């Protein structure tokens, strides 16, 4: 396997003043929480790396709201280039999208309020784009939303605010956010192949939609830890990085727990440990720990994502000793060895499998997957077939060539993304197939119970979601 993704220098934990027991403990703690990958840097050198199959370091992973921090840095670049200031009014920067009647609160909304999630809105604006009749002019739709509070008065987490920052940059720079960032920041630190989801008019989503590799995350984190400096080049103004990582607003009223209540900067969260982080749904993290000159990059599908941060503080923190960053030798970073996402436990085959092998069972009614894109078809039928050492699952969008006791090879995009799958008979009449969406947080579990009256009880669940994780409960016959 080629390792072109490895571009950051490596050294041993001991050379960087780290007790490797702490790294082993961190890897052991993150696995059961749903981690997909981990990189730990100290003094700019990778000292720990771990990946959980079927995920790989080479494949870009969805960042979710880690994207917001990239948007904030782009705003800082635009400020440095004289395109705007944080005191500029939003309606002045998006004049074509402003409503005919501008409320006092909307008129008072400034760039700094979008950066700090204190825009005056009562909730996340992105729900507006799902309303009937919104059309494809999303900036206009968002600026038409009610602003019930004085901007700057209260923290309300709002991905729509970040989208508006992207829309502002799109208008001022006359290019998409990704294209603006690439020559200024991404390319100089080695990020290649990044993608960013866009709205119907080609504006990058800003608050989510970025996909990059774990090594890309670590490089970006190291850039911020170095206050925007990379080698001899100052890519982002140091003063902007300082401003972005400082506390600007009290985020504790949101009531999301200690790690979401330690203060908020410019699209970055302060941590209980004194660190600061870029934070994405389901456990995507870039943690900057300046006190220890440490960066931690994590991708995950974690139902309790803040437990991963606790693991970093409690496992890695005590292992960090003194070291001299000027005398680090090249060496091998440490990991926990081969590891994989959780797989079902059971047998490779049961007698009932012979009776249902190749049969097609039809659901009593079409079962649509909640939250799936409209192009994803419903589950109408279920077929299981044995093919040598693998089990083939055909359940509409749930298509798996599943291996026993391991994650199978990458397969097609029936779910809109590549996946890998594994299976086991967890009981005499129950077959469980798990499908992992590669480069995403998601694992889908398809549980088929073949009853004595020749029906199949179909259960489909998802490990993490913004809505229900119980997707399908149906009978097929």
UniProtKB/TrEMBL annotation:
Pfam families named among the record's database cross-references: Beta-lactamase (PF00144)
Residues of the Beta-lactamase-related domain: 37-301
Keyword entries, A-Z: Hydrolase
GO MF entries: hydrolase activity
Chain coiled-coil ranges: none
InterPro entries, per the entry: Beta-lactam-related, Beta-lactam/transpept-like, Diverse_Enzym_Activities
Protein name: Class C beta-lactamase-related serine hydrolase
Species per Swiss-Prot/TrEMBL record: Xylanimonas protaetiae
């Amino acid at each position: 396997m080629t390792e072109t993704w490895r571009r950051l220098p490596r050294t041993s934990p001991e050379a960087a003043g780290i007790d490797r027991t702490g790294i082993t403990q961190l890897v052991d703690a993150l696995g059961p929480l749903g981690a997909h990958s981990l990189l730990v840097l100290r003094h700019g050198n990778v000292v720990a790396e771990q990946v959980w199959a079927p995920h790989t370091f080479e494949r870009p992973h969805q960042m979710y709201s880690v994207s917001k921090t990239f948007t904030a840095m782009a705003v800082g670049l635009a400020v440095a280039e004289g395109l705007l200031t944080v005191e500029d009014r939003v309606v002045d920067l998006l004049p074509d999208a402003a409503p005919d009647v501008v409320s006092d609160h909307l008129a008072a909304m400034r760039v700094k309020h979008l950066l700090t999630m204190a825009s005056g809105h009562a909730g996340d604006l992105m729900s507006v784009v799902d309303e009937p009749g919104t059309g494809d002019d999303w900036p206009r739709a968002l600026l038409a939303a009610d602003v019930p509070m004085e901007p700057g008065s209260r923290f309300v987490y709002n991905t729509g605010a970040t989208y508006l920052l992207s829309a502002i940059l799109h208008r001022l720079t006359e290019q998409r956010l990704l294209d603006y960032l690439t020559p200024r920041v991404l390319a100089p630190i080695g990020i290649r192949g990044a993608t960013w989801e866009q709205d119907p008019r080609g504006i990058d989503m800003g608050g989510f939609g970025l996909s990059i590799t774990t090594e890309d995350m670590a490089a970006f984190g190291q850039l911020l830890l170095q206050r925007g400096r990379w080698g001899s080049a100052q890519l982002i103004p140091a003063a902007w990085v300082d401003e972005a990582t400082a506390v600007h607003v009290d985020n504790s009223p949101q009531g999301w727990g200690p790690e979401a209540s330690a203060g908020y900067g410019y699209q970055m969260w302060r941590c209980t440990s004194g660190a600061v982080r870029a934070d994405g749904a389901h456990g995507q993290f870039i943690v900057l720990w300046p006190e220890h000159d440490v960066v931690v990059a994590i991708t995950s599908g974690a139902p309790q994502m803040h437990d991963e941060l606790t693991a970093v503080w409690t496992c890695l923190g005590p292992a960090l000793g003194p070291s001299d960053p000027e005398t680090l030798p090249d060496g091998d970073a440490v990991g926990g060895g081969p590891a994989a996402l959780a797989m079902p436990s059971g047998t490779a085959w049961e007698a009932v499998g012979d009776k249902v092998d190749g049969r097609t069972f039809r659901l009593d009614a079409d079962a649509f997957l909640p939250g799936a894109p409209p192009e994803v078809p419903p589950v109408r039928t279920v077929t299981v077939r044995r093919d040598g050492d693998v089990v083939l699952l055909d359940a509409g969008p749930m298509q798996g060539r599943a291996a026993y006791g391991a994650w199978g090879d990458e397969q097609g995009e029936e779910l809109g993304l590549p996946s890998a799958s594994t299976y086991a008979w967890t009981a005499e009449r129950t077959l469980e197939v798990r499908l992992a969406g590669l480069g995403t947080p998601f694992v889908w579990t398809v549980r088929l119970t073949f009853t004595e009256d020749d029906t199949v009880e179909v259960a489909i669940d998802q490990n993490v979601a913004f809505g229900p994780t119980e997707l399908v409960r149906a009978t097929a016959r």
